[in-house]
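Hi support team,

I've been running sequence recovery on a batch of backbones for a student project. Most finish fine, but this one hangs at about 90% for roughly twenty minutes before it completes. I'm not sure whether the input is malformed or the queue is just slow. I've pasted the structure tokens below so you can try to reproduce it. Let me know if you need the job ID as well.

Thanks,
M.K.
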């Protein structure tokens, strides 16, 4: 796998580039994140296409990488813009992707780890207040 090429693909991803996933992912690749679990490169591409319909200006920034011939761990920041009460706000989610490569170098396993409670739910108006309360209640 040309890891730098894959990282560049994600960091420069556009709605039009989503159709390029088969260049990087095997036909039967597996993907899981806190909200999705799918198999197949077209289903994976569909998740990223959906991302462009849900948020404005999504962008990945890979900040660290650990890799060998069979896989990689990518630490990333996902930046995006959301509209709230007529205003547009920038948001960030921090996460890690665990990737495994096939013999041909294509991704066959992609698991994203990120804390949905801290990175997403805590930022929602009503649910965020409840999450903050629960966090203080259970903190030591």
């Amino acid at each position: 796998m040309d890891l730098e090429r894959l990282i560049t693909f994600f960091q420069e991803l556009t709605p039009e580039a989503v159709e390029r996933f088969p260049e990087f992912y095997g036909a039967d690749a597996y993907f899981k994140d806190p909200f999705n679990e799918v198999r197949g490169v077209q289903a994976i591409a569909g998740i990223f296409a959906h991302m462009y319909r849900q948020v404005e200006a999504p962008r990945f920034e890979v900040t660290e990488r650990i890799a060998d011939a069979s896989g990689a761990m990518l630490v990333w920041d996902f930046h995006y813009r959301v509209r709230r009460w007529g205003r547009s706000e920038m948001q960030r989610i921090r996460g890690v992707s665990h990737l495994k490569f096939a013999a041909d170098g294509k991704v066959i396993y992609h698991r994203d780890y990120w804390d949905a409670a801290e990175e997403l739910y805590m930022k929602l108006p009503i649910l965020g207040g409840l999450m903050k309360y629960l966090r203080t209640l259970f903190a030591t």
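--
Follow-up from support: It reproduced on our side and the slowdown came from queue contention, not your input. The CA atoms of residues 122 and 128 lie 4 Å apart. No action needed from you.
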